[in-house]
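Throughout our pipeline, every protein is held as a single compact record rather than as scattered files. The remainder of this section carries one protein's record, kept here as part of the documentation.

===
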Amino acid sequence: MSGCIQCGYCCKKYGMRLEATPLDIARWRLEKREDILVHVDIEIKNEEVKGGRLWVDREGKNEKECPFLVLKDDKYYCGIQDTKPEVCTWYYCDKYF
């Protein structure tokens, strides 16, 4: 978590406007992570997974923030750190610098 001050800012501000890659979706399927996949609106074209919109509820509406954001001891943690979406690894925390 280099550069992360665990404020939750990125997950709260951007968590509902992210896209999963086809590799993210394939990984979650291999890992049998239905708890994650239920929050992904998977886009399929010509029988091929193109990606998916993160994070959606069961009705297909955007969540207000990442459903895997966990608050503990006044710090935020990623509840799926070991398999989080690729896009989440790209975030540059301007609060840290």
Notes: Helices lie at 9-13, 22-30, 34-37. The chain has one domain: 9-89. Residues 45 and 51 are 10 Å apart (CA to CA).
